[in-house]
Amino acid sequence: MPAAAALPDDLRERIDALAPWFHNMDLGSGRGAEMWTAPDHFLGNYPGFKFDRFAHALPADLVGKTVLDIGCNAGFYAMEMARRGAARVVGIDSDERYLDQGRLAAEALGFLGAIEFRKLDVYDVAALGERFDLVIFMGVFYHLRHPLLALDLIREHVAGDAMLFQTMQRGSEDVTPVPEDHPFHVPGTFDPSPIFDEQGYPKMHFVEREYSGDWTNWWAANRSGSEAMLRSAGFAIEARPEAEVYLCRVAPVPFAEYGMKAAVYPAGAAA
Ligand SMILES: C[S@@+](CC[C@H](N)C(=O)[O-])C[C@H]1O[C@@H](n2cnc3c(N)ncnc32)[C@H](O)[C@@H]1O
User: Fold this and answer.
1) pLDDT (tens digit per residue) in 210-223
2) I want to staple 5 with a disulfide (CB 3.0 to 4.6 A). Which of 99, 103, 110, 135 is the partner?
3) Integer distance in angstroms from the first to the last C-alpha of the chain?
4) Closest by CA position to 155, among listed 254, 18, 9
5) Which residue ranges have their beta carbon within 6 Å of ligand 1?
6) In CATH, what class is 11-258?
7) Taking a C-beta distance cutoff of 8 angstroms, is the pair 85, 61 a contact?
8) Alpha-carbon 153 to chain mean position
9) Is residue 4 within 8 Å of 29, Cβ to Cβ?
10) Which DSSP symbol is given to 211?
11) What is the pTM of this model?
């Protein structure tokens, strides 16, 4: 925990100048002044109240560990990992405005030197040229046009051990065990296998227009689909501390021996 930093006199003005904020954080560290970044946030104390529900799934002590927070926004999770003692924390986001928010929050909370905020698209993670002990990939997957490509690139280039993952899920919570193979037809008929109609078969809904007023919401997988995609990208699910949130470990990439890795663009970027 850093020593309490001297609060900039103009902190409230600087917070307001960077509004709107998606991460609602108390930059005054509870020291009296009203220094929340988004006091009227529609989700209230977000993401603090959400983190409280799965914080226990991560090691309390990250001393000596490296962390990459992809789509870090204003750095709530990056700062929580620095608070746990991580040796190196890198937060990347494609939106410079959020990174400026992160820098201000880190300055006010005494983490400025502890976190490197960098403008980088998830599709360009190969440019980091480094694997991290913990990758945080929360709330980004469903905003991507090419989510599996992003997952493959993360596995290929930056995931060193663990990944904390969250995606928006819609549809059934059922999980149909995925068979090794599916017959093309129901044996003895020309009917397609009915397994595709099961609620628990891995599925992902495509949002053509907007969802909840946000045109960047492209995909909503069901639970089974989220879990199948993680496994198929080479992540073993270790825990599901709450709905939509998974703690994973890197695992062998299925079918890699047939050249799946070669299909990952731009796999060779860091070479
Ligand atoms: C819903 S917010 C999630 C923020 C944070 N990870 C969380 O869970 O609270 C999505 C974030 O991902 C970022 N983002 C969206 N597309 C991205 C991309 N292609 N590469 C990197 N960041 C991206 C957005 O700018 C935004 O900060």
Assistant:
1) 999 999 999 999 99
2) 110
3) 37
4) 254
5) 22, 47, 71, 73, 93-95, 98, 121-122, 138-140, 143-144
6) alpha beta
7) yes
8) 14
9) yes
10) B
11) 0.94
